[in-house]
Amino acid sequence: MIGARELEVFLAAANYENFSVAARKLHMSQPSISFQIQSLEQQLNVQLFQRIGHRIQLTQAGRDLLPIANEMMNLSAQIEEIMEAKQGDITGNLTIGCTTTPGRYILPALIGAFRKRYPNAKTIVVINSDRLTAEEKLLDKETQFGIFGLPPKSKKLEYWPIYNDELVLIVPHDHPWADRSKISPAELMEADWVMREPDSATRQLALLHMAEQGLEITELNIAMELGCPEAVVVAVENGCGVSFVSQVAIQRSLALNRVRTIPVEGLSINRQILMARNPNGARTRIQERFREFIESGEGQQVILNILGTP
User: Fold this and answer.
1) pTM for the whole thing?
2) CA-to-CA distance for 6 and 65, rounded, in angstroms?
3) Average pLDDT of the chain?
């Protein structure tokens, strides 16, 4: 009889196309991976992989097995979850990968509210500074959900919106623009800028909208680049420049009057924050409950409270 561990090893080898990489991901030795694959091939009396140099590739039999193995692993996860639920509550593990802004400001409150309803849920949040790394973890099934500020680049992932976010221009409280009701797009070229790293969705979106206003974004005076939204806000507070940041990142600084938000005439930067998942990954009840919670009135109210929206 084929065991769940053999299928897990098969799926890892198929995903990474390399026994050594699969071994590292599963915390096994490379010979153990090879042994499990050989055992599975002997049981099925087929060759599942062909060796091409240092890499491996699925045979036709391996490709035929792939969707069945994925489905069996899904069913295995569901069986474990259902049996645990017989003890009186929905239980399970959630691993969520995300970029910095939703990971630092939105997810903690959402998960806290979710666990009040499902106290036996165990959640791990993996924050990645760039979207591509978060996507890779989702494709590799190291995470079950991903939350991004731009649509995933990989066509293998499915995604849907969970809330709307706005990027706002912030300046120090004593900046010459601080008492202005608005500024023109052309004035943005006069400022020193504090920017996120080049791969940041926030930076890419801000520069895109500025370019659409006819600004030569390559001529912006970028005085500082930082890897997280908190650092950007602190740098602006201390007079290092101005920046476009997510509205969720500035609530405390606004309340303390350390920064001001300045409208830019004709420039409005809104985006949808998206939740993504790998359709080939396991779909357990705790995952479905988490998605349902985020989309529910209660989950949306938690988000609105963080955004400062009544």
Assistant:
1) 0.68
2) 12
3) 87
